[in-house]
Amino acid sequence: MEQFVKDQIKYGLKYLPSNLFKSLFIKKSSDETEKFRNREFICGICHAHEEYDLLHGANVKWLRSDVNFPFNEDGSVSLPFIHYKETIKRYSENGIKVMAVTPYPQDYLRYGADVRTPEGEKKVVEVTKFIFNELKDYVGGFQITNEMGMPRFTIPFTMDEAAKFIGIQLEALYPIRGDVLIGYNCAGPAADLHARMLPYLKYCDYVGIDIYIGCFGAMYQPMWLYNVLLNYLWAMTRKPILIQEFGYISGGYPKTKEEKKAILRQYGVESEKDAMTKMDVFVENLPEYFRNHVKHLAHNDPSRYYDLLFKSDLKDHLYCELPAVQKIPFCDHTPEGQARFYDKIFKRIFKKKFVCGAIVYMFDDTSRCYICGQSDCPIETKWGIVDRDKNPKPAYYSVKKAFAEIQGQ
Ligand SMILES: [Zn+2]
Fold it and tell me: FRET pair for 259, CA 20 to 30 Å: which of 191, 194, 195, 305?
C-alpha cells in the first residue's frame, strides 16, 4: 500500500472519530465564523473563462482559479503570470472576486525554491509575497497551493514538508493580508495534513475542504457524509470552513467484462492477470499522457505499476468507467442526477453556521480528462454546469437557484 494511503488511514483513525464525537458538544459557530458569514457567504465556481453573462446569470460571485508561476528560469516575470493578472483584473472589474490558488510544490522546485533548504525556504516566501503584492488589488482570497496529501500534487514532498510549504507561506502573508482571505485546502478528511497544520491555523482566515461524495471510491456514499466531514473538520480546526471544491459527475457508467477486455487488448494483454507479468509493456502501450502520469506517480519504478493501475482510482481511468455503486443514492451520474445533487446539497451545507462558502466544481465540461488524457474518460470531463459548448445543463439552473436563495438570506 502507498505510504500516503497508510498515513491517511493512521491519522484518520486518530483524529476523525474523536473530533466527530467532540462536534456533538461544541458550539456550532464562533465570532470568527459569524463575522465571515455576515460579510459574505462565498458563492463560487471553479475554472470559468470569462463567460460573464453565464456567470452573472447563475449568481456566481467568486471564481476559483490557479495562479501561473510568476517567474521564468532567468528570474524575469513569466508571460502566463502577466496574462493571469490581466485576466483577474477583468474579473474584478466585472464584479467577480477571485479565489487564487497559489502554485504547486513542483512549480516552486523547478525554480529552485525548495522548502527543504534554508535558502530555498527564503525563496519560497519571496515568490509568494511577490504573487500576493501583484494580485492583492484584484483577488478576494488566496488558497495556498492545492490538496496536499494527494500524491499527484504533493510528490516529491513528504507530508511534513508539504505542511511546512503551506505554513511558511501563510505565516508570511498573515501580517500583510489586509482584507484578502488566506487559507489552505485538503481533499477529503486528510487528517494527516490538518494535524501538521495545527501550529499554523492562527495564520488562516479559513480552512478549505474538497468533497466529492459519490464520485470516487467504489462504495455506497450517502449524502450525509458531507455532514460527517464538515463536522469533523470544524471540531478539529475551529476555523471558518470553506468548501473549496465540491460537485458531481454528470455522466459515466460501469463497463462490461467484454468492454474491459477490449481495452486491455488495445494495450497488448488479455487480462489483468496477464498484465501483471507484462506491466512494462502494458504501460509503454498506454496513451502517452496517461503513460507519463503513471510513471510520475510510480517514480519510474515499474514494480509499482500494477498496484497503481489495478488497485487505485487509476483503474477507473484505465477503463473509462464509473463503478455502479459509486454514487449518492437517488443521484445518478446523469445531467438530471447532477442537478438533483445541487438541489439537495446546498440546503444541507448552508445550515451549518461554521461553513462560510461553497465553490462549485466546475463551470464547464472539458474535452480531456486531466489525469489520463482520454476524451472518453468520464472521471474528469463531466463536472461542468454547462457543457463543452457552454450550453447550460440542468445543474446550471439548480446552482443559480441555490445561490439566489443564499444571497437573499
Ligand atoms: Zn481519466
Answer: 305
